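the four lines:
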Amino acid sequence: MYKSLDPLLHNELRLKIMSLLISIESAEFNFLLDETKATRGNLSAQITKLAKADYITVNKSFKNNYPLTTCKISAKGIDAFESYATALKTYLGNR
Amino acid sequence: MYKSLDPLLHNELRLKIMSLLISIESAEFNFLLDETKATRGNLSAQITKLAKADYITVNKSFKNNYPLTTCKISAKGIDAFESYATALKTYLGNR
DNA sequence: ATAAACAAGTTTATAAAATAAACCAAATAA
DNA sequence: TTATTTGGTTTATTTTATAAACTTGTTTAT
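prediction for all of em together
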């Protein structure tokens, strides 16, 4: 089958992350953790995948001495998300 | 993460099959093969999964002496598809 | 000052899923 | 009658997702 749905976005956790980031300037790791109810390991893994594809940028700093990971969607990520939304619609018909 | 997207439908090939069946009374194996461009093996496997979940019914007969597999979406399948579409929309925002 | 508990992630190992490749039975063609 | 084609199914491999274990450093209690 020729794939029209970006496999990177066609995963619930990654899609949720992107869906949050697209309307939230940027988000901290723990915020995403709370919103998604994912495990830390899984969240970390999926953030890494999105970052490797340059769909998001990840900034590492410190807050109160603790590591702080902040994520932000990129222009490429926004494009991919929009394309994904468009492609999906062709499957859903009028719904 | 709590899953809100039915994993059975959240796969491009199965989604495509369902998307075709929902607007086509019924479809023959070769029709689905042609529309999806999947391999026969993969198509067979995914049809089996959808059938096991009672999302579709599968009828086996013969046409011109050759085996003929016909698929039809079920009421349960329609419901699942509609729910999936609704759930997805929460991820896509206004798009 | 040391040890135990906690924070914020990352890495690794396992389970599950998707897919391609190989196979099969029956029909037709050479 | 052997070879090829049709219409699939089954098996084996690869990929992906996920949970469990680990790491690095911090804070709290002793």
